[in-house]
Amino acid sequence: MKKLIHSLCAFLTKQFQVIRKISYHTIAQCNNIIANTFVIVTILLFAVQLDAQWKQLEVGPPGQVWSLGKMGNFIFAGTVAGIYRSTDQGKSWTNMASYFGKCFAVKGTQIFAGTQYNGIVCSADSGKTWQMTDTSLHREIDAIAFEGNYIFAGGGAVMLRSSDDGSSWETIQNGLQYGQTTVTGMVVTEGKILASTFAGVVVSTDDGDNWSTLVGTGQANQVTNCVAVIDSTVLVGWAGGIIRSPDDGRSWYDPQGYIKTATIFSIAGDSLRIYAGTTDGVHVSTDDGVTWIPVNNGLPGEQGWYLTKNEMNLFAADGDFGVYASSDSGFSWAQTSQGISGWTGEYLAGNESNIFATISSPTGGSQLLYHSTDNGNSWIQDTSLHGTWIQSITVTDSYVYAITNSGIFASSDNGDNWSAINGGIMDTVYPVSLAESNSNLIVATQEPGILFLSSDNGISWINVGKNLPRMGPLAAADNYLFAGNEGDWTSSNDGIYQSTDNGLNWSLINDTLINISSIAMSGSSIIAARYVPPFPVGSPLPPPSGVFLSKDNGETWKTLMTGLPINPHVNSLTIHGKNIFVVLSGAYGNYSGPIYSSNLDGQPWTPIGQGLPIAAIYSVFANDSSVFVGSDVGIWRVPISDVTAIREPKGSVLPDSYKLEQNYPNPFNPTTIIKYSLPQESKVTLRIYDILGRKIETLVNKHQLAGIHIVEFNGSHLASGIYFYRIQAGNFIDTKKLVLIK
Question: Which of 144, 252, 263, 539 could make an SS bond with 279 (beta carbons 3.0 to 4.6 A apart)?
Answer without folding.
Answer: 263
